[in-house]
């Protein structure tokens, strides 16, 4: 009976991860123009800061409430991309997002398994510690691919774009999870 419960729990976790990944991938806005591509018809001006020369798209709290790069006089890096840069960045971003989503679904599954282990009638401390180590390894891999993505992004940009991008990276690091836009 216990093996049946473990198999059932594993299948439930697997299906939850698959549905989480497929639901997050079904964003029609990104499919229509890519993250740095054209906006869908009828969305002109959406996400732009009014009166700003930066243009581009605004993702959540990416720029904060007091405008974007108040100390930066050059244009925002996204607004100056060439078509080749845009294509390469969209491809890199797609690869990064797929890898990150796969790992994040593993994190979710491991947290569920950890909760099940810790609430067992006779919790096994060794199994719990092992699961925690497994979870930390996956989180470590997420950080590795995130910072590898940042390095790869920088390699595609010219010096002016890199300056703007680097300021974005530093600002997101300063804001932490409050900034929400942590994908680069």
How far is the first residue's CA from the last residue's CA?
Answer: 46 Å
Principal-axis shape: elongated
The number of helical segments is 5
- Report the strand count: 0
Query: What kind of oligomer do you see?
Result: single chain
Average of the residue pLDDT scores? 74
Strand content: under 5%
The topology string of helices and strands comes to: HHHHH
Radius of gyration, CA atoms, in whole angstroms: 20 Å
Major β-sheet profile: none
Derived from helix and strand composition plus strand pairing, the structural class reads: mainly alpha
Helix content: 55-70%
Identify low-pLDDT runs.
21-69
Features:
184 residues; mainly alpha; 5 helices
Provide a descriptive summary of the structure in words.
The protein is built from 5 helices and no strands. 62% of the residues lie in helices and 0% in strands. The model is unreliable at 21-69 (pLDDT under 50). The protein starts with a helix and ends in a 9-residue tail after the last helix. The chain is mainly α and 184 residues long. Helix 1 (2-25) runs antiparallel to helix 3 (83-118) and helix 3 packs antiparallel against helix 4 (125-156).
